[in-house]
Design goal:
Order of helices and strands: EEHHHH
Largest sheet: 2 strands, antiparallel
Helix content: 55-70%
Distance between the termini: 25 Å
C-alpha cells in the first residue's frame, strides 16, 4: 500500500510505501537539523527534494551509503540553485555530512 504526500500545487504527488515515507520524513528532519544553511528552504521543497533522492537511489538499487550520499549531494547541489555547495568548494564536506545522516538513519 502506497501513501501519497502532496505539497504545493507545482509539486507532483509523491507515492511511496509507508516504510519509505517514514524514511523520507526522518531524512528530511535530519537534513534540516544537519544543514542549518538550508533553513530558508520551505519544508515542502525540502521534503520533495529528499523524496526525489530516494527515488533515484531506488532506481539504481544501490544501498552503498557513500553512493547514496553522492546522490543526495548531486541532487541538492543541482536543484537548489541558491545552495550550490560545489561552487563554494564544499563537495567533500557536504558529502560527508550526507553520509553521516544516511548512516545514522539506516543503522
Amino acid at each position: 500500500m502506497a501513501q501519497t504526500v502532496s505539497g504545493a500545487t507545482a509539486t507532483p504527488k509523491m507515492q511511496m510505501s509507508p516504510e519509505r515515507a517514514q524514511e523520507v520524513i526522518q531524512m528530511t528532519k535530519r537534513i534540516r537539523h544537519g544543514f542549518p544553511e538550508l533553513k530558508d528552504i520551505p519544508d515542502e521543497q525540502l521534503l520533495y527534494a529528499t523524496w526525489r533522492n530516494f527515488e533515484r537511489i531506488d532506481q539504481t538499487s544501490d544501498s552503498d551509503y557513500h553512493k547514496m550520499a553522492n546522490v543526495f549531494f548531486r541532487e541538492f547541489d543541482r536543484h537548489l540553485p541558491n545552495y550550490q555547495f560545489s561552487k563554494a568548494g564544499e563537495d567533500d564536506v557536504v558529502r560527508h555530512r550526507f553520509f553521516a545522516i544516511i548512516t545514522e538513519l539506516f543503522q
